[in-house]
Amino acid sequence: MVAAVDLGSNSFHMIVARLENGVLRVIDRLRETVRLADGLDKKRRLSIEAQWRALACLRRFGQRLSDLDSSDVFAVGTNTLRAADNAGDFLSQGENALGHPIDIISGDEEARLIYLGVAHYLPMDDQRRLVVDIGGGSTELIVGQQTEARQVNSFFMGCVSMSKRFFADGKVTAKAMASAETLAKQELEPLQERYAAGQWDVALGASGTIKAAARIAWENGWCDEEGIISRDALKKIKKTLVDAGRLDKLDLKGLSDSRKPVLPGGIAILRAIFSVLKVERMRVAAGALREGLLHDLVGRIQHVGVRDRSVHALATRCAVDEQQVGRVEKVAMQLLGELAEGWKLQDEELKNLLGWAVRLHECGMMVAYNQYHRHGEYIILNANLPGFTQQKKQMLAALVRSHRRKFPAAAFDALPERWGAQALRLAILLRLAVTLNRGRVDVELPPMAVKGGKTSITLQLPDAWLDLHPLTKADLLSEADYLSAIGYKLVVK
Q1: Which residues pair with 149 in a beta bridge?
Q2: Rounded to whole angstroms, how far apart are CA atoms 318 and 321?
Q3: Contact at 8 Å (CB) between 199 and 130?
Q4: In this structure, how many other beta carbons lie within 10 angstroms of the beta carbon of residue 444?
Q5: pLDDT over 70 (residue 303)
Q6: How many alpha carbons fall within 13 Å on the CB side of residue 172?
Q7: CB 161 within 8 A of CB 137
Q8: Distance (Å, whole) CA 391 – CA 396
Q9: Which domains does the chain have, with CATH numbers?
Q10: Among 5, 9, 14, 48, fewest CB within 10 Å belongs to which?
Q11: Taking the CA of residue 248 as centre, how many other CA atoms within 13 Å lie in the half-sphere pointing to its CB?
Q12: pTM for the full model?
């Protein structure tokens, strides 16, 4: 059993599925309109009322997921939680309510996962697909083939935020619609060529806005096929909205009460997309972000490594020394094997993170040797790493930043509390592996005895070997000083 939870800006979704013979079979779905984006004020803080609505929903979801292991649940926050300054405070309460960790994903990662969810419901042909998802706070555009997203972008505009800005009083005027469409066009135009007709063969829509527009078009006889939205149908929907003048006077077949407050903003964005990208017809897609989360989770369970590919691609771009990576990785994994049980590092994901940190710990050298650990941190935090949530990128960056010199307390303080002690311990293992391979030559290290205490680590090496390697001995003594600053004791015998 696996589950995905999508904490969207407008609605929260949960999907539960069973993996049978390599195929996902959905066995439960839940959706609640939360309007998280509605609670984001001008100071970019979530209101107490919005948090209460969200936490109440997560408690209900949590009851359904109480029997699942956290490794089988993938819960993510999207645009509103990316933007909220107090998202960290909310997430700690949200994780308690849900009973499982919640990660925040970047806009580009959200786009990749949306495409993955859509692609698994389509034939495995060679058509180039434009996929559009208009969420509550952001809009994602993707062009891909089969299951691979080739071009992804996320735009800071959604049906909730656009409706809040131009139609907050419930009035829908021609002037307000024109202003909303113009703003959306301005956001899209810089990337027009990447997504314009000619770059794709078929257009698909994965969001509630597009599903609602297609349903309205069909039930009002404005489209000749169910599940399709056309340029002409969008024009008629807009005219109906403007003619009504107010949302409380709007009577439109196929429109639900929950969708009504955010429909004008969503239609403005969708019309802008049709205009800028020269779309004539768009088909409603079966999958979306939550399905993409499920398939990505199953891929990890089955060791299909999109994150491995992302790390390898970044390491290649940064011309990382593969031989040195191999030396450091061998020692780091040896230390992890010795200390995993005592230091509570048995989780496979922690082993993955240590391995990725080893592969990228010198990526900052592409900028300069001086302060390269800081350059590496910056590169990781700002790189597009498909498969990584924001928290996992932060942890990876913290490990790279802390593999030499002083420990950066701020980098670890920014991590979720559940990772605090584990992240520090992984950093210590990486530091020792780097220190023992500072010579950057293939030297067989002697047998080592390693023992870990609650806040200590003992490394036993033969006296003769230490005498023959005085620089390593000096480095280990310096390392003891660095570790003492964070409350850990390194004993070298």
Answers
A1: 144
A2: 9
A3: yes
A4: 4
A5: no
A6: 26
A7: yes
A8: 9
A9: 2-105+292-297 (3.30.420.40), 122-285 (3.30.420.150), 305-444 (1.10.3210.10)
A10: 48
A11: 4
A12: 0.89
Measure Cα distances from 415 to 120, 359, 398, 421, 443 in Å.
33, 21, 9, 10, 36
- Could you report how far apart the first and last alpha carbons of the chain are, in Å? 48
- Number of other residues whose CB lies within 10 A of the CB of residue 109: 25
For β-strands 23-33 and 11-20, DSSP reports them as: antiparallel
CA distance 481 to 228: 66
Counting Cα atoms < 13 Å in the Cβ hemisphere of 121 gives 21
User: 331 is written with which tokens?
Assistant: 């020692």
The C-alpha atoms of residue 98 and residue 463 are separated, in whole angstroms, by 53
DSSP-derived pairing of the beta strands 456-460 and 489-492: parallel
Q: Is the pLDDT of residue 304 over 70?
A: no
Q: What is the pLDDT of residues 317-339, one digit of tens each?
A: 999 999 999 999 999 999 999 99
The pLDDT tens digits of the residues spanning 379-401 come to 999 999 999 999 999 999 999 99
- Joined together, the tokens standing for residue 27 give 């066995």
Q: Which two three-digit tokens encode residue 171?
A: 């009035």
Both structure tokens of 289: 């972000």
